[in-house]
Amino acid sequence: MALQSQDGHLHQLRACLPPEPTAALLWLPALGVAARHYQPFAESLAARGIAVFVHEWRGHGSSSLRASRRHDWGYRELLEFDLSASESGVRQALVDSGNTELPCIIGGHSLGGQLASCRLGMAPGFASRLWLVASGAPYWRAFPTPARYWLPLAYRFLPWLADRCGALPGRRIGFGGTEARRLIADWARSALSGRYRADGLDVDLDAAMVRSAPRVRAVTLADDWLAPESSLRFLLSKMPRATVSTTMLDSRALDARADHFHWMKRPDAIAKALTN
Prior knowledge:
hydrolase, Hydrolase_4, alpha/beta, UCP037442_abhydr, Alpha/beta fold hydrolase, hydrolase activity, single chain
């Protein structure tokens, strides 16, 4: 489904629809990951009755833009413009398929889970349920040692590098993709301060999350140092009214390495944990 954000950005919303869905999920990818890489996950969920719509982050995959010195954006464009377009796309798809009464879920992987939490606070009318996989706040104090000792240095270096290069060269350094300067600045601000704020967005995101009361299902992975259980707990602490169910999976349960990304190729255990 082709979508256009209010500032003209174009992207595709990928859909995987079962014959008789019981719920609809808007899924937000990790930083730097194109929507197409979640196709096995979407198919696994669809086999369990979930209509899955996979969002495309600005700058990746089907997006009409690529981050550069000329093209820059931050959390504001992702939260206010692009996610609004995808939510409208999901609603229209449900109307077209005659499934207007389906309950809606928003969720995501890594950064996708963080921004799903923020968006749920901003626009609570779309979904009442939140699904998180390998996700947690990047706040340096929420990480165990020794990572917490060097993370503040990384959180200062990456925005500097993005500014110097015109965009973060994520593929070259092994973190994310080619990412916009303001996006990395917004991310690093939350990582250093523990609070979410989008430059140019007149919304107190932390206060909005406090007001939200979703039903949360979260899956952590035993060998995931990028989103340890402690970082998930910190993210969930921003939603004190939420009803939370968490599951930790190891490599035996996944039949794959229980790290940040390997589950995407063998997603059945994750899909089962979310839908049971």
